[in-house]
Design brief:
mainly alpha
């Protein structure tokens, strides 16, 4: 049954090739020669300061097909352009379509992507002073080289993959083609709108330069990711649409705020997060500290200095939760509440003098409450953090995958 479907598809492709050939004959026939505008129409255009464009054979052929086949203007234009292009410059593609190796969709893609390259070489020949016949031979030559490269795998490629392969082949055959037409392509930038009847939505389409399009999208995406990271219940697509709408209509977000810069935080009495023992330089092994994750010392700076000068590791507290003011320890290892030694005194041991230097600790400021970005959301504020404990983000796009 699958083979029968494949056979019918080949027959359809053969019939499509025959239809394209007939469309080309209709295009070249005497009946499709356009007439010039009537004197009354020219006078009316001159009175209204409008210009009249003379019709060509493609216009008349497209009108005939739209009337008889009840096609949309875009469909009729695509058929006429494909018929003219394949019959004139890409005969091998038309032959592959006739044999059933290609379908009409892939043939149209080849014509759409490769035709501008052939037209460009035709214009290059004319600008070089060659005759129209010699310029057309140049266009046919580059089209023939393109067909030799692309038709080997076109039948086994998906339409999107075929389009990508065509662009890559064009870049290999003529690397300067894209550079020559960057300005021409930018002239086609536009913004269009379409209302979707029946569902209460509409579509905006912007055709921009590559850099401008990427920059505009990154701005919208940054606002959306910041809002979702702050706790918004909307998904990223909704947030991007809302950010785009509010920035265009009002020039700002709904509450009038933008993504602010991190505020200046007072760090004089900030919490100390020691990574290592300041006495030995080893990672802390004290049972009061967790073995995984980050440990935070919540004492004051004065207690930390007293404990360090007494030789106790930073973070080791007395039974009352603070280091002994005198810095002397009892034989049992706990600090004396009164600061005096216990009656039982161990024999004094000779200890080599060692200068204790308190290394500079990394300070993590306690950040203020996040400023609301959108109603019902909060902004993620990034600040100094322990590199072993908190990851660093280069941009808001790294906060959460889409």
């Amino acid at each position: 049954m699958v083979e029968q479907i494949a056979g019918i598809s080949e027959q359809i492709a053969h019939l499509e090739a025959d239809r394209l050939k007939l469309i080309r004959k209709l295009h070249d026939s005497e009946y499709m020669r356009p007439l010039s505008a009537s004197p009354s129409a020219q006078a009316e255009a001159k009175r209204m300061d409008r210009s009249l464009r003379d019709l060509d054979r493609e216009d008349t052929t497209r009108a005939e097909l739209m009337l008889r086949l009840r096609l949309r203007p875009s469909e009729a234009r695509r058929l006429v352009e494909t018929a003219v292009t394949l019959t004139a410059r890409f005969p091998k593609t038309l032959e592959a379509l006739s044999q059933g190796a290609l379908d009409l969709t892939r043939a149209i893609i080849i014509g759409e992507v490769a035709s501008p390259l052939a037209d460009d070489h035709h214009d290059l020949g004319l600008r070089a002073g060659k005759s129209p016949e010699a310029a057309e031979q140049m266009a046919q030559s580059i089209a023939r080289h393109l067909e030799e490269h692309i038709l080997k795998r076109a039948s086994a490629q998906a339409p999107d993959n075929l389009r990508g392969a065509l662009h890559r082949t064009i870049n290999r055959l003529d690397p300067e083609y894209a550079d020559r037409h960057v300005k021409d392509n930018l002239k086609a930038r536009q913004v269009t709108h379409r209302t979707n009847r029946g569902d209460g939505t509409g579509d905006l389409y912007a055709h921009l330069g590559a850099a401008e399009a990427l920059a505009a999208y990154n701005v919208i995406d940054t606002y959306a990711r910041a809002a979702r990271q702050g706790g918004s219940k909307r998904n990223l697509n909704e947030l991007r649409a809302d950010a785009f709408t509010d920035l265009i209509l009002y020039g700002h977000l709904p509450d009038g705020s933008t993504v602010p810069k991190p505020v200046d935080v007072e760090t004089e009495n900030a919490t100390i997060v020691p990574d290592v023992d300041p006495n030995t330089g080893d990672i802390r092994r004290d049972p009061n500290y967790p073995t995984t994750g980050c440990s935070t010392y919540t004492g004051s700076a004065k207690d930390a200095a007293a404990a360090t000068s007494a030789g106790a590791p930073l973070g080791t507290a007395s039974p009352t939760g603070s280091a002994s003011p005198t810095g002397s320890a009892s034989p049992t290892g706990s600090a004396s509440p009164t600061g005096s030694a216990s009656p039982r005194v161990a024999p004094r041991q000779r200890v080599a003098p060692r200068q204790r230097v308190v290394p500079r600790q990394r300070v993590v400021p306690r950040l203020p409450p996040a400023k609301p970005l959108w109603p019902g959301t909060t902004r993620l504020t990034a600040g100094p953090a322990d590199l072993r404990c908190a990851p660093t983000f280069k941009s808001l796009s790294d906060l959460e995958p889409s």
